[in-house]
Amino acid sequence: MISSGTTCFCDMYLFEDAVACAAKHAGMRAVVGEVLYDFPSPNYGPIENGFAYTEMLIEKWKNDSLITIAVEPHSPYLCSRDLLKRASFLAKKNNIPLVIHVSETEYEVQTSKEKHGVTPVGFLADLDVLSPNLLACHCVMLTDEDISLLQRFDVKVSHNPESNMKLASGIAPIPELLKAGVCVGLGTDGCASNNDLDIFLEMDTAAKLHKVNTFDPTVMDAYTVLKMCTIDGARSLGLDDIIGSLEPGKRADIIIIDTYKPHLTPMYNPISHLVYAVKGSDVATSIINGKIVMEDGRLLTLKLEDIIEEIKIIADEIRGPKPEL
Hints:
The protein is of the alpha/beta class. The protein is built from 13 helices and 12 strands. The chain has helices at 16-26, 47-61, 81-94, 106-116, 120-126, 144-152, 161-166, 174-180, 199-214, 222-229, 231-236, 270-276, 304-319, and strands at 8-13, 29-36, 67-69, 72-73, 98-102, 134-138, 156-159, 184-186, 254-257, 283-288, 291-295, 298-299.
């Protein structure tokens, strides 16, 4: 992510204290939280321990310059009513983000209607979970009433188009959300459902996907998509007071792009170039929190060669022994 121009990421999965430590070591800004659900976790075991683990994270990383902890129940379909309400209370109590997967697939929505009589968004509304600190990830299958609820409670949405495409989940109604005034940030989802984590490719995909879906070339213009990737992404994480734009008083999270490339020459409109032409590999320097973490394409906080060799060893262990011929 550093090498392709991402300066801040949000992560939900397991062993998130290790993720926070790795991000801190790399000098990268991160919003992380341990995934909570109704069945035992390979990290913390029963859900009661999951909340204790989350509270440990909140206490350990409070006031850190790079790490923000979020409360992260997985989804309405993997979390009980009590779990969701408790998670929401914990996030509001500590004034931190609440991150959850919502309405990612048609099956999820249909199951929610059969079980609860409402859509996943409606279910969260009934539980008083919808709020300005909530980041609803995916939101692919939304009704008009869902969009109205998201707007009314100032819920933020994470749009992950390449993941939705790879998993054949569908196309989120992002133009409709933006028209309604919902804040939408751009994400990649994890490596399992989006292999490269290149946010520049994600911008290009987001812009073009909605154009072809609506048969309207003016939808999702370059400026709108760039905002989703910068200031609106920061708003989605509750960090827009310190990052997301170049302003006096904000943290210096800055990337420098090498534009002396054939595919970036000539340049008439820099914003259009950023969305439609720049690749992550064009990023030359990354500065996070005022510290240079990559310069002229060379990582300064991580030993890339050592990491690659370590990963190869882990991959060989996962593959197991080669079968005898």
